[in-house]
User: What shape does this take?
Amino acid sequence: MSSHAHPKPAPLEIRFWTPGVLVLFAVMLIGVCFIIARYIGGLAVVTNLDNQHPWGLWIGIDVATGVALAAGGFTTAAIAHVFGRHQYEAVTRPALLTATLGYTFVAIGLAIDVGRSWAMPKPLLFWQGNSVLFEVAMCVVVYLHVLYIEFITIAVERFRGRVNLPGPFSILNDRIERLLALADSILGKTMWVFIIAGVVLSCMHQSGLGSLMLIAPTKLHPLWYTPILPLLFLTSAIAAGYPMVVFETTVATASFKRVDEMEVLAPLTGVTKYLLGIYITLKIGDMIFRETYVYLFDGSIESRSFIVEMLAMIVPWFMLMSPRLRAKRHTLFVACTTVVLGIALNRCNVFLIGFNPPYAVKSYFPSISEIAITASLLCSITFFYRLAVTYLPVLSAPSLASIEKESS
Amino acid sequence: MNISRRHFLGVAGGMISSAAAGNCKKVFAARQPKAPPNPYGCVVDLTACVGCRTCEQACNRVNHLPPPKERLDDRTVLDQKRRPSTGAFTVINSYYSGRLDEQNQLVPTYVKVQCMHCQDPACASACITGALSKKDNGAVHYDKSKCVGCRYCLVACPFQIPAYEYFDPLTPRVRKCTFCYERISMGGKPGCAAACPMEAITFGNRQILLEGTRRKITANPVRYLNKIYGESEVGGTSWMYISKDPFEKLGFLSLPHYPMPHLTETIQHSIFAYMWAPITLFAILTGAMWKINPEQINHAPGFQAQEDHI
Ligand code: SF4
Ligand code: SF4
Ligand code: SF4
Assistant: This one.
């Protein structure tokens, strides 16, 4: 096969249950037990949250990091669909899948975290335009719908012309077919609106997440409190988009024994070196401008965490500068994973480590059950990713076995 | 298609320039502080408070909370630096500023803590549904029927006041001093102010209170520092304090003198006035797609487009 004609995405048709998937499933179930405990005993029994630390691991990881790392969805859509770089089409679907799952679990994580889960739709009734959180919530709700609409095309493609319900349901076959055909034609004509809306909504709430802590100038450590925090959140999310795609694609192709897609991934991260460069420049420029470097080496937890966070951006940035390192699968994976972890640490720094309530008597550390629920949500994302790529046309990398057959 | 494209770009350009020119002032104007014009207020005279905690008891009574856990004659609780909680909207803590009395004993100062009822409150600006709101009479009021329990108000409050019912699985509330909203709406005094045997808490119209307090400070320069805490902190608060000892030594925070929501609301309203920023971005991206990747708009779904292209 030629290196240009990338095959169409197809369901993987692999055995779904493997020992690894069973482990995932077990972790998910453990999390469910803790979630049940949360709804019986309240947040107090499962979390270490208190009046000083109202936001914990779930906001830092499940929500803030989740949203940042789902940025692969809108950044790949932008490069492939808006800017017409069709060579990257191959990664748009897996990135869309990750984004859809990511945001779904952001919503689930939030529902567990808010005290009155049943009242989640209330912001739709009571608008509060001054609240940053209101803006973020609205964008996330709308964007989640946009993601599902974009995702429907994949399901339609899978089932169109193949609807074959058994027995008494077979009279519905025709109708469902027509429905799918209708959806296909409407979505085909309007998809560009959703793609662009998705990019706009993402820019809005990615930066909005950064504005959240600006309401608390006396609580957030000066290393992170800056009026340009929304811009930093936006640029870092955009910069993290492609590394996250590399991370998940490499993990997926390795675990499903597929071709590694390096001819797509290596050039994709060529863009990242500029995006990451913009972010690092802004971040260091901001530090110099606000003279916060005085805190840099004071040995506090905050200063150390800040240094680690910065190194996790700067080191991979240098790695990505070198075309040689970028072309190698292992070094590319290491660089991209470091960026992903760096972004996660940045979000945790802003929401947890840098958050210093003035009268706090003790500091916050997540409880075992908080960690278990977060782990359960992460495993759920992996589980449903596998489920989706097994039965829906998402991945397009050919399997290693088929390549071997071809060459022999 | 060329014509329609040009037309479209014209519309987009028009939109951008009108947003930029016509509304520029409104869009980029920094946020004006908002505060009710004629609110009530309270002044706590720390030189008068004897730490009897009668106000705690009264507060729990008028708010239908169980009586304070710690017995009133247990003076050790005063040293515990308690914070307001779901079971106590106000607490008294003692501080030693280093001042000595005639017998060379350290003199304690008792500080009453409760919601400050900020004039331009961070909690209300943050609240996702407006469950917290500043009322004209000065009270920052909580409406549990709107609350979703996101706890952003706890994050936002610079005085670290709101407490959350973490033990309630489905209907937890944010709890804090109500400024005895119902009582003061009907012309009464807050429960704590009415109960104080030392008359350390003066309730009244905030403006008149401020003038009276300033006169009092001028008349007693030995008894009072020339400072009213809360007059301008975070843009002013309805609850204010006067003291003999420096406020930093009494657990009071040094806070900015502008309203806390200033930056977030300026950013929010600059970006979202008339939705100009999202609309502009949408227009630019559509223009880019139209120019660079027109197949997408002429309804060629991604993968067909890809095949045609390569
Ligand atoms: S003290 Fe805190 S809770 Fe009270 S009004 Fe001010 S911001 Fe709100
Ligand atoms: S917890 Fe309730 S009162 Fe506080 S910000 Fe959220 S919705 Fe508003
Ligand atoms: S004003 Fe009312 S609620 Fe607030 S501390 Fe006094 S008695 Fe309690």
Summary: Chain B touches chain A through 70 residues (CB under 8 Å). The pocket of iron/sulfur cluster (ligand 3) is lined by residues B 58-59, 62-63, 89-90, 114, 177-180, 190-192 (CB under 6 Å). The mean pLDDT of chain B is 87.
